[in-house]
Write a structure and sequence with these properties.
Elements: H1 12-19, H2 24-37, H3 41-45, H4 54-67, H5 78-89, H6 94-97, H7 101-112, H8 119-130, H9 146-151, H10 155-171, E1 175-176, H11 184-190, H12 195-206, E2 207-208, H13 210-224, E3 243-244, E4 251-252, H14 256-261, H15 265-276, H16 281-296, E5 303-306, E6 309-310, E7 317-318, E8 322-325, E9 330-336, H17 342-346, H18 351-374, E10 389-395, E11 415-419, H19 420-426, H20 434-443, H21 453-456, H22 465-472
Parallel strand pairs: 2-3, 9-10, 10-11
Antiparallel strand pairs: 1-4, 5-8, 6-7, 8-9
Helix pairs in contact: 2-4, 4-13, 8-22
Length: 484
């Protein structure tokens, strides 16, 4: 394209000034209504000029809250919102200009793919992990009654509140009004979830004012630095507090997706981290390890062995967390309750180091265990050495392109990074032996660098009984199943 006609792009300053033309009391309800109207992926893909993406709407809401003012500003129209979203889509990104493909994909994945998770599957995982998976090691924090201590209610009531707000926001143009409890439908809801419980949960964990949001946003921007071009890839405080007060009756929910996300394992993790402090993740790590073992036990014909301790008493060592013996392959599974950090989402030069720091030890542990099997170590005598060995590093949340660009340290054993959702789907495949599917993927030099879920599409599946049981424990279980 000739330079004379090349789109010069939009600077962040120009974008912010466009957002600031309009009163927040006018623009934010428009954003909320649009987010509800184009909630489903098919809807925003078919929105006008494909501009109404959830990440663009979420950033517009963030900038409006952080920088908007009611003084001497105009009323926003639908056309004004479209122009804001168009300006967002025309941002110039330095990693694109500099042809840094890895950084670009890390940013795009962190920005966009977090909005494309399966709601019922993620919500069911919360109960499956936190209330239905037994801990084999004593818990320091997740003791009986922890949910009442943290949420002020049971986990089921907390998830039910998130679901209630989510559905209301989608159906009511981004709003949740407590007057719902005065209607016949509200009286039915109150049989399972009281108005007082909903108010307490929302005001304690979900709702924020403009002043509180601005304080949280200032903290978030301080952690990420002051590069305005990177703001849209950083943590949006609406993820922690997705409801707004001060915008009419009830609560305004600019992004319905963020209401249910508060009740996913990721959302619950951060709430627990805020409550218990930095030592809490050890409890979650132990719990998530057992949860993955439960899922692996669903593989047909599998022998699932927990980690094995070996070596002299003076220097005991452990294998990977789970060894899964299938007819076609031996899977060495190392579990990490890891989530992508800010450097990963930003695609910074430290991003690869951040991934390696979280997942590199898994590769080493898998290689060591594979060598023990090959050497026929007595402690692993129950593990056959007559079939291929593959590694799985299983994370709580997805590291979307961890299998590409050689982000993991080189090892002798082929290792795939997979998240909990992918394992939950893998174990339900019925038309192909899962071990055979994994071997075919490992032998493909191209597909091996893709995410695991690309190999799971197009297959027949059974219900996942662990997720199904978890979904059935919720207040509104009749609304649908949790299986993908």
């Amino acid at each position: 394209m000739p330079s004379s006609v090349r789109d010069p792009g939009t600077s962040d300053y120009e974008y912010r000034q466009r957002v600031r033309r309009y009163r927040p009391s006018s623009l934010l309800p428009l954003i909320a209504a649009a987010a509800a109207r184009y909630y489903e992926q098919e809807q925003w893909l078919n929105s006008p000029f494909r501009k109404y993406t959830p990440w663009a709407l979420a950033d517009a809401a963030r900038v409006c809250l952080a920088h908007g003012t009611e003084f001497n500003r105009a009323e926003a129209s639908e056309q004004d919102l479209l122009q804001i979203l168009n300006a967002y889509s025309r941002f110039e990104d330095p990693v694109v200009r500099d042809h840094d493909g890895r950084a670009c994909l890390l940013r795009m994945a962190g920005q966009q793919m977090t909005w494309q998770a399966s709601e019922p599957q993620a919500l069911a995982r919360t109960a499956a992990i936190f209330t239905q998976t037994p801990l084999l090691k004593p818990a320091k924090y997740l003791r009986p009654g922890w949910d009442a201590e943290v949420f002020g209610c049971t986990l089921q009531e907390y998830v039910g509140t998130a679901q209630l707000v989510w559905v209301s926001a989608v159906k009511c143009a981004g709003r949740f009004d407590l007057a719902l409890f005065d209607t016949p439908d509200g009286q039915l809801i109150a049989r399972h979830l009281s108005r007082d419980t909903v108010i307490r949960v929302l005001d304690t964990h979900f709702a924020t004012s403009i002043a509180q949001f601005r304080a949280a946003n200032k903290t978030a921007e301080g952690r990420a630095g002051r590069d305005d071009q990177l703001r849209r890839y950083t943590y949006n405080p609406l993820r922690g507090r997705p409801l707004l007060t001060g915008f009419g009756a009830g609560y305004l929910c600019p992004m319905p997706q963020l209401a249910w996300a508060k009740a996913t394992p990721w959302g619950v993790y951060f709430t627990l981290l805020d409550h218990f402090g930095p030592a809490f993740p050890s409890d979650l790590g132990n719990l998530f390890e057992q949860y993955v073992g439960r899922q692996l036990g669903l593989l047909p014909g599998a022998q699932v062995l927990p980690e094995i301790t070996y070596g002299p008493k003076s220097a005991r060592s452990k294998t990977v967390d789970w060894i899964v013996v299938l007819p076609e392959v031996v899977l060495l599974v190392e579990v990490k309750s890891a989530i992508p950090t800010e450097p990963v989402r930003l695609g910074t030069p430290n991003a690869a180091d951040a991934i390696v720091g979280k997942l590199g030890k898994a590769v080493t542990q898998i290689d060591v265990t594979a060598q023990l099997i090959a050497d026929r170590h007595p402690a692993l005598a129950a593990v056959p050495a007559d079939r291929p060995v593959l590694g799985l590093a299983v994370t709580l949340e997805p590291f979307h392109i961890a299998n590409a660009f050689s982000l993991l340290p080189a090892g002798r054993t082929p290792v795939t990074v997979a998240d909990a959702a992918e394992i939950e789907v893998l174990v339900t495949i019925t038309d192909t032996p899962p071990g055979e599917l994994l071997l075919e993927r490992a032998d493909d030099n191209v597909r091996f660098t893709w995410s695991l879920d690309t190999a799971l599409h197009g297959h027949e599946h059974s219900l996942n009984p662990i997720l199904d049981e978890a979904w059935s424990s919720y207040l509104w279980a009749s609304a649908g199943r949790a299986d993908p």
